[in-house]
Specification:
It contains four helices and two strands, in the order H-E-H-H-E-H. The longest helix is centred in the N-terminal third of the chain and has 11 residues, at 7-17. The protein has helices spanning 7-17, 27-37, 41-50, 60-65; strands spanning 24-26, 57-59. Strands 1-2 form a two-stranded antiparallel ribbon.
Length: 67
């Protein structure tokens, strides 16, 4: 799913979710963010197929790789 959003946009999304500034978001938060930003059925399906790969705690590098 690379190329959909600029790196700074991905960082901004992560920072909006990471309200505690801990450097981590939950699996559920990550999943919700990815799904809400999916702009096509293909992207949504791609996210759904990778849900099991998402760890319980997600840092920015992991989040960015999911895009």
């Amino acid at each position: 799913m690379t190329g959909i959003f600029a790196p700074q946009e991905i960082k901004n999304v992560f920072e909006l979710i990471d309200l505690r500034n801990s450097g981590f978001i939950t699996k559920e938060q990550c999943k919700d963010a990815l799904k809400s930003l999916a702009s096509s059925e293909y992207q949504f399906s791609h996210i759904e197929s990778r849900i099991d790969e998402i760890p319980d705690k997600v840092n920015f590098d992991q989040f960015q790789k999911l895009w």
